[in-house]
Structure formats: C-alpha cells, structure tokens
C-alpha cells in the first residue's frame, strides 16, 4: 500500500535547505504532498514573504520530489488534509519540534533536521540591508528565475 507524506511551509526565497527537506520527506514514502502557505495565512502568522504565493507554489510544484502542492490557508487545515489525502506521515523541520505532536493520534509525526548554514530568516536579515531599489531588482530576478523554472518543467 502506498505511503503518503504531508508537509507545509512558506518556501519563500527557495533555497537548498528547502530542497533537502523535500527530498528527505519524499524518501519517507511513495507520495509527497506539500502545503504552501498563502500570503493571507502568512499575514496571520506575522510573516511577509518576498516571493508571492502563486510563484512559490509554482516553484514547489516543479520540484521532482513533490507529487502535489496545495494552498495552506489556516492552522486547522492540517488535520483535515491528513484525512482528505489519506496521509501516513506528517513531516516538518525540527524548528517546529513538539508543535504538531497532537497529530500523532492519526499519523506518524517526523521532525527533520534543518540544513546547516542556511535559513530564509537569515537570508531576509541580510537582504534587509538593501534599499527599496535593490529589493525591486531582487524581485525582478526572482520573477525571472520563476519563469525559467516554469519553462523547464
């Protein structure tokens, strides 16, 4: 019987740490479903992504380890998605350790180690030194990268 793995994240400024966690999660099962937090849900969480939701989900959808990417719109969705998709394993980075233990009554909960030396938070801290013109240039570059990924998939 196929084993389904589910995870969630913002996946802003997609980097090797994101790719590593998706690859490891896919290795835990036969199917990986990834919930990508919408801009509206990120606002509720106090986050403001650099890359817009539609681009972030398109990047995640194009990753070969990902079988399906869905919008994440609220906290309660996790339990509903576990039932909806017949999930066997809920996995997430260990920076969330203990936060989703309550899901253990219906799935195996796995916390994976983060990739050393890389984090979106640190990237944003470094980028905060840029003025508005530099940020707009970065956004244009990220849009170009997103377009290249779309054309290659």
UniProtKB/TrEMBL annotation:
GO molecular function: nucleotidyltransferase activity
UniProt KW Transferase keyword: yes
Database matches in InterPro entries: Archaeal_FAD_synthase, Cyt_trans-like, Rossmann-like_a/b/a_fold
Keyword Transferase among record annotations: yes
Listed name of the protein: Glycerol-3-phosphate cytidylyltransferase
Keywords annotated in UniProt: Nucleotidyltransferase, Transferase
Domain called Cytidyltransferase-like: residue spans: 6-125
Origin species: Arthrobacter ginkgonis
């Amino acid at each position: 019987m196929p084993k389904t793995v589910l995870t969630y994240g913002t996946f802003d400024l997609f980097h090797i740490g994101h790719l590593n966690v998706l690859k490891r999660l896919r290795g835990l099962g036969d199917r990986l479903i990834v919930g990508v937090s919408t801009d509206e849900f990120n606002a509720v969480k106090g986050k403001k992504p650099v890359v817009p939701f539609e681009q972030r989900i398109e990047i995640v959808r194009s990753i070969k380890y990902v079988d399906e990417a869905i919008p994440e719109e609220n906290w309660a969705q996790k339990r509903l998605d576990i039932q909806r998709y017949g999930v066997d394993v809920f996995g997430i980075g260990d920076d969330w350790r203990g936060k989703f233990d309550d899901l253990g009554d219906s799935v195996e909960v796995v916390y994976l180690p983060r990739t050393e030396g890389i984090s979106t938070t640190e990237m944003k801290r470094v980028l905060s030194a840029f003025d508005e013109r530099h940020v707009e240039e970065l956004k244009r570059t990220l849009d170009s990268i997103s377009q290249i990924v779309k054309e290659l998939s």
